[in-house]
């Protein structure tokens, strides 16, 4: 029993960590940002806010829904890049079902 427990502990220590890479999109072209996400599947992009100086913004951006948690969907987002202010990428978020129900129950017109 001790041998099995020791072997299991050693396997956990030797296992590769699935770390998510971090990048600054403002130092990359939009094409390079999108290619990096496509190649790695999921990355963290970190950049400075344009509205609040000194405020760092970051999020996890994904290639497709396989990299999202259960119950999340892929949603379009925009990040700044070296060659454009709004590079289209995708992130995971929970769908807002309440907004759709409110729209049906209480129409604006």
Q: Could you give the topology of this structure?
A:
Layout: H1 2-14, E1 21-23, H2 30-40, E2 42-48, E3 56-62, E4 73-79, E5 87-93, H3 97-105
Parallel strand pairs: 1-2
Antiparallel strand pairs: 2-3, 4-5
- Please give the order of strands in the largest beta sheet: 1-2-3
User: Helix- and strand-based class?
Assistant: alpha+beta
In round numbers, the mean pLDDT is 83
Query: Approximately how much helix is present in the residues?
Result: 25-40%
Note the beta-strand portion: 25-35%
N-C termini distance: 70 Å
- Cα-atom radius of gyration: 20 Å
What are the secondary-structure elements, in order, as H or E?
Answer: HEHEEEEH
Number of helices: 3
Gross morphology is: globular
Q: Extract low-pLDDT stretches.
A: 12-17
Task: Give the number of domains.
Answer: 1
Summarize the biggest pleated sheet. Answer: 3 strands, mixed
**Total beta-strand segments:** 5
Keywords: Signal
Protein name: KTSC domain-containing protein
Signal peptide: 1-19
Organism: Mesorhizobium tamadayense
Quick overview of this protein structure:
The protein is α+β, with helices and mostly antiparallel strands and 109 residues long.
Describe the structure.
Strand 1, helix 2 (30-40) and strand 2 form a beta-alpha-beta unit. The chain has helices spanning 2-14, 30-40, 97-105, and strands at residues 21-23, 42-48, 56-62, 73-79, 87-93. It has three helices and five strands, in the order αβαββββα. The longest helix has 13 residues, at 2-14. The strands form two sheets. The chain has a three-stranded mixed sheet, with helices on one face. A two-stranded antiparallel ribbon has the order 4-5. Residues 12-17 have low confidence and may be disordered. The chain has one domain (18-105). It has 109 residues and is α+β, with helices and mostly antiparallel strands.
